[in-house]
């Protein structure tokens, strides 16, 4: 599929461009092709090999030794050494390499092991989210296949649902949240994880998922009487209509907390209603949940 520039490789692997060139020239590590204007471009196999080599070198192996290994030997060595639970960069590189190979079994193994060793929430925060950020960069550069992105999203969705199902039930008398995505919004992973962390902290959630028209939210709020509402704005609504959307959501549950997560809710110059907040990071959302957990539940 698409081609990578050396700056793409630098950004995705964390290895400086001059180091990549040195490895290429001295050890024949990568096999770039040149454009008509004599610019080096790299393919998926080059990126996959670089990610795996970076993982091994970060574990103290010498590049001169690693470069002599075949791709199969490198992959086997990566699987054998991915046991440092706190080396998040290494784990993200291993997952990216597996994604590029459509290696579902390896992806599942790496995610399962990270969750087992770190705990599910830390796995999501320190491994899965950095992985998704890298994939986002690749998407913007046109260097990720939609099928690869869907593979990762599907696996993570399964992990979040399984982890949520394993939580103890929460009584409806606990603090209540409504979670939904705007009309035509289909990117669900962040909202699913928010649902997990709320339930893990003893909050009751009414999860309404993707593509919810605002008139339906209004009816839900009148019946369910939530203490807070949360949504994620990834592609919807249109950038120029976010303020209008925020006002409409706030009107559905006046004087209740409204959380709007996502870049569209943090655009420069946007003024949100007084009961709306827009956490920059997922860790900020977790802190917000902790602050409001001690407040009395509405009658």
Automatic annotation (TrEMBL):
SUPFAM superfamilies hit by this protein: Cobalamin (vitamin B12)-binding domain, Putative DNA-binding domain
Alphabetical keyword list: DNA-binding, Repressor, Transcription, Transcription regulation
InterPro entries per the UniProt record, alphabetical: Cbl-bd_cap, Cobalamin-bd_sf, DNA-bd_dom_put_sf, MerR-type_HTH_dom, MerR_fam, Meth_synthase_dom
Residue ranges occupied by any HTH merR-type domain in the UniProt entry: 1-72
Identification of the protein by name: MerR family transcriptional regulator
Species: Hymenobacter ruricola
